[in-house]
Amino acid sequence: MRRGRLLILLALVMLLGLVALFVVYRFLLAKPPEVAQPTQPPPVEILMVSQNITKGTELTSEMLASIPWQISALAPGMYRAGQINEVTGRVIKYDATAGTPLLSSMLLSEGETISQAGSPWALSIPKGMVAVSIPINRLSSVSYAPRPGDHVNVIASLLFVDVDTDLQSILPNQTGTVISAGPPDPVTGTRNPLTVEIAGGVYGRTIIDPVLGQAVFLVPSEPQRPRMVSHMLLQDVVVLNVGDFPLSDAAAAAAAEPTPAPAEGEAPPAPPVPDVITLIVRPQDAVTLNFLLLTQSKSATQLSLVLRGADDSSRENTLPVTLGFLLEQYQIPVPAKLPYSLNPKVDTLTPLPMPVSQPTQ
Fold first, then answer.
1. Radius of gyration over alpha carbons of the chain, in Å?
2. Cα 130–chain centre separation
3. Hey, is 91 helix, strand or coil?
4. Are 333 and 188 in contact, with CB atoms under 8 Å apart?
């Protein structure tokens, strides 16, 4: 009887050992099954311009070459390498540089002609859009970073003041003295007209002092302070040009030629600092910018640019920034009135002097 129990216990121990070995092998030693990695589709060959071509040129096979291109990055209008016979003999609309992928929008369709009049920059403006120029400086243009083809946002900052609705003059109004006409002239019997003299006073308001219980007349201690607001006016705007356009085709061709290297020991000439940038916008946005440019000449508006990422076409619903928004959004506390202060007193914030620099080539 005792021997049978021992055999049963021995059998249970061996069974538990086999189960433990199976678990160790199955979950710890066995290699996980290999997951098949998704394979990238092979690239396709597309056509590109192999040399610099001017508009109006009839394409030949020597002007084209094929390059590999990922299928996921194919854009509408691209030509495959096997379609070279479809594009040879066709006329190109725009100037194209070597290495530019060939698109159907770059070629004349049947019955279409190239306009020989007008500027070449008009060919870069999409249908339904217009170009407008705005002034820039070092800070408002991201330190002269934008180049033709870049995308930027336009920020507008404005100053607002309260005005008298009828007089359309800035508040507070000034007071004046009206002088009565007096009695009529004893000889002619006519009355002299009323005269008004500006006394130079400022229209204020009356309050009751809570301590003295008496009326106190308050007048402003300074002119009205403007209230500023900044807002993202335009988003994803394309830059057509930075600086002035050449005034002649010869000047444009000279500007397109590479600058010769300076002689040994000579410093390269500094490029001119641009003071204007041309943007491609919708017609309504052009009218808006024109209005702001007229107010900018009176220092009531300031336009600034921010540079966007090369592949970023998103639009964000930004909020206008005022002093109240700044304090609330970023949790900036209003300093408490303390029984001590700095000496000497600080009335204005003076920025550190910025060194004058020229854009590098």
1. 38
2. 17
3. strand
4. no
Which residues in 25-63 are b (16+ Cβ under 10 Å) and which e? eeeeeeeeeeeeeeeeeeebebbbbbeebebeeebeeeb
Q: Which domains does the chain have, with CATH numbers?
A: 44-112 (3.90.1210.10), 121-161+226-244+274-311+318-332 (no CATH)
> At which residue do the structure tokens 């206008």 appear?
320
Bond into 38 cis (ω within 30): no
| Type of residue found at 149 | G
What digits encode the pLDDT tens for the residues 109-165? 765 666 655 677 787 788 889 999 999 999 999 999 999 889 999 999 999 999 999
Contact 294, 217 (CB under 8 A): no
Residue 213: partners with Cβ closer than 8 Å, 6 or more residues away: none
Cα 74 to chain centroid, rounded: 28
What are 182-199's pLDDT values in tens digits?
666 666 666 666 555 555
